Each structure stands twice: as structure tokens, then as C-alpha cells.
Amino acid sequence: MGLFSNFFLVRRLRKGPTLLLPYVPDTEAVLNTVRLHGPGARPYGDGLKVSDNVWLRGPITMTPELAAKAGIPAGWQVAYVAANIDDEEGGEYDRPMAVAAGLAERLNGQVHPHAPDSPADLADVTGGRRVPVAELVELLADELPGLTATSVNPVITMLTSERSPIEILVEEDDGEVTYEICVDDGVQGPDLVGTARRAALAIAERAGGIARDHNGFLIR
């Protein structure tokens, strides 16, 4: 196989998180997509080092024999295995599942053995200025009509919409402002993720910040 012994390869693929693709991807396209998560991603060992503690191993050619041993359905041509480099705790997005899930979405793939549950935190914006509440309400009128603001405490303001379950938490701590676009656990609905990402991108453009999705990938 050239990556690691067959026994360990099968075990890694079975355990996951494994990114499965139905085609042979362009390696440069994969690297550029990975860099939406980790801007400093680079070739590393038998794959890519995504961040300080996440390694994306591959590409692995999925032969019928290998797929059968790993419990992967037939039809997938290539796999990548996301793993921690060591056992140290990473940052919020320094997780193999976040990398695999974000890549699966952008590269038309699938996560094995199972995709993560629908997230409560849909997107966030960091590194920008605080936008006045009235300005936020006007900015997001099309995506989230009827926004109203409630002061939770001196540093947190919550914006809720009368027509959407999406909420926006604005938190300011030592001059740093974070906008979190979220829903209650288990809440689902048509295009919630798309709405949240459009809202995050609009806020980022107005605040001069950086918008990321729940997997830590830049929103473009």
C-alpha cells in the first residue's frame, strides 16, 4: 500500500473519521481546500499536516478488497484518514472529524463510518469590530427578518428572529468581539446552514472579521 501496513490501514479506515471520494481528486485542489481550514497546511509524511495536531493521511486507493475489509461500501475510489498527530488537546477546530466533515462537504464526499450530528453552532465571526445592534438588524433584515436584541449580561447580547430559529450571540471580551450564529440543539430546518453562513459572511464584511463554518472552514 505504501502508506502503512495493510492491517493498520484497514483498522484506520474502519475507525475513521475517513473521507471517502467517488473520484480521484487533484492533489493541489485538495491542498487548497484543506487550507480553508488550516492556512498553513502542507505536505507531511504520507499526507497533509492540516494544523498543529491534525494529520490527513492519503490519498488511499480504495480497491474492492480493501473496501470490503474496512467495511466501506463499494463505489468509492479514494480515501483520506484524518487523525491526531499526538494525544494533546487541540483548539476548537483542531479535530479530525471537523476536517473530514468539512472536506466531505466541499469535495462531494462522505465521512465514514458516520457523519457528525447536525451542529448547534452553525458559524462564527472573529477578529472584527463590534457592529451596533441597530446596524446588525438592518444588515440582516433579508436573511433574518424581525431581529430583536436582548442583553444577556454586560458583555453578551443575543439577537433572535421572529421567523427563524437562528440566534446570534455577540460577545465582547477584552476588546475582542465574537459573533456566534447558532440554533438550539436538535433544531433542523430548510437551509438553516446556508442562512447562517450568509449571515456570518455579511457580518464579517461589515465588521472586518473572519467568517468560519462549524467545522472551522473559511466561508467564501
Radius of gyration: 20 Å
Mean pLDDT: 92
Structural class: alpha+beta
The profile of the biggest β sheet is: 6 strands, antiparallel
Number of helices: 6
Which percent band covers the strand fraction?
Answer: 25-35%
Give the total of beta strands.
12
How would you describe this protein?
With 220 residues, the protein is of the alpha+beta class. 27% of the residues lie in helices and 30% in strands. Strands 2-3-4-5-1-6 form a six-stranded antiparallel sheet, sandwiched between helices. The chain has a six-stranded antiparallel sheet with strand order 8-9-10-11-7-12, with helices on one face. Helix 1 packs across helix 3 (64-70). The radius of gyration is 20 Å and the shape is elongated. The two termini are 36 Å apart.
